[in-house]
Amino acid sequence: MGLTNDVPSTVSSQKKTVAVIMMGGPTKGTRFRPLSFNLAKPLFPLAGQPMVHHPILACKKIPDLAQVYLIGFYEEKEFSLYISALSNDLKVPVRYLREDKPHGSAGGLYNFQDLLMEDDPTDIVVLNCDVCCSFPLTAMLEAHRKHGGIGTLLVKKVSKEVASEFGELVADTKTGELLHYAEKPETFVSDFINCGVYVFTPEIFNAIKNVSSSKHEISSLRRMSSFEALHTATNSRAMQADFVRLDQDILTPLAGKKKLYTFETNDFWEQIKTPGMSLRCSSLYLAQYRVTMPELLASGDGNRSPTIIGDVFIHRSAKVHPTAKLGPNVSVSANARVGPGARLIGCIILDDVEIKENAVVMHSIVGWKSTLGKWARVQGGGDYNAKLGITILGEDVAVEDEVVVVNCIVLPHKTLNISVQDEIIL
């Protein structure tokens, strides 16, 4: 299935690259509620860093990276604080480009073609914000330049049972050329899937333009009944000339034409569609810190600092009692307070949360400014894919002393004074 990410990286330093991270917008991500009510999904913290920060850090490692662009249709003010903080930390400029409406993953690129080409890049790295992986971008770039196609996509072998949830593909086992691509096919095509990470040459803009032009011609030539016109306008963007998708509109028709190639990863990969998956991906990034940024992980033996088991992130402003026990796979955000004897396992604790003495949190996300009383217990079953597989407390939820909450989703500003299980608390 083409080259793997074990190849040493020696990308030429004479070629400029720009990176684009596609972020979507507030009309999507409804599956991420209640966590997306008061925070744009790309800013939700995984392993103590905003979701979008992980791909940005990966892009920063690309030699001669000219610029990182974030494309989405969130309000600009939602990202202004984050981007200004970034500019102090990173040497690479990061810029947010707001779409006036959804244009699709390829249409969004085409919409900002002039800006993306300002630095005259030879290559454009494109990735989806809701992807969690090790982002082997430098090795991908090297492979991409060797085979000389217009695009390279990151692929991974998965079980046949889950393959149909993604774009399935067939590639030449020797050259890595993409031979066939089908987005979420009804019948099994392949156990190799598209990971939503790409490298393109600027020629991709011609391919998008051709699709957009052909859509425009079809819509002009075809006379629709008033019912069809209403149905198309209200229910489908697919026929709009400026709405172009990378998968169905670009990858599928270009497959088998010696233009697109694959790059296989054997490392971790997940898609972050739900709060359950964000908990799973937080644990994957925590494990990656051990290799890439061990200084971000907490340590402690229960004497002057809390007992730490496995991979744990604690924000420097959080206060954790020395008798508390945390881990594995725990992330504690800014200004959180964890009391004496508290036990935290497999959870994300967001800003300004207070966990009182001897409370327990397992396989759960505890929302901003929430409070857990003494001996309270908040836990999930740990099934990241099930709707009620973890417990989620929205913002400002109070769980009173000795109350037990199991496999529940609790919307913001609720007070729980009796124990609940397997419920959505509206």
From TrEMBL:
Please state every residue range assigned to the domain named Mannose-1-phosphate guanyltransferase C-terminal.
Answer: 308-425
TM region(s), chain numbering: none
Ranges for the Nucleotidyl transferase domain? 19-217
What's one Pfam family here? GMPPB_C
Ranges in a coiled coil = none
Recorded GO cellular component terms are: cytoplasm
Q: Which InterPro entries match?
A: GMPPB_C, Mannose-1P_guanyltransferase, NTP_transferase_dom, Nucleotide-diphossugar_trans
Q: Kindly give the CDD domains that the UniProt entry links to this protein.
A: M1P_guanylylT_A_like_N
Question: Which Gene Ontology molecular-function terms are recorded?
Answer: nucleotidyltransferase activity
Tree of life domain = Eukaryota
Similarity comment: Belongs to the transferase hexapeptide repeat family.
PANTHER family attached here? SUGAR-1-PHOSPHATE GUANYL TRANSFERASE (PTHR22572)
The name this protein goes by in its record: Nucleotidyl transferase domain-containing protein
> What is the gene name?
LOC112285935
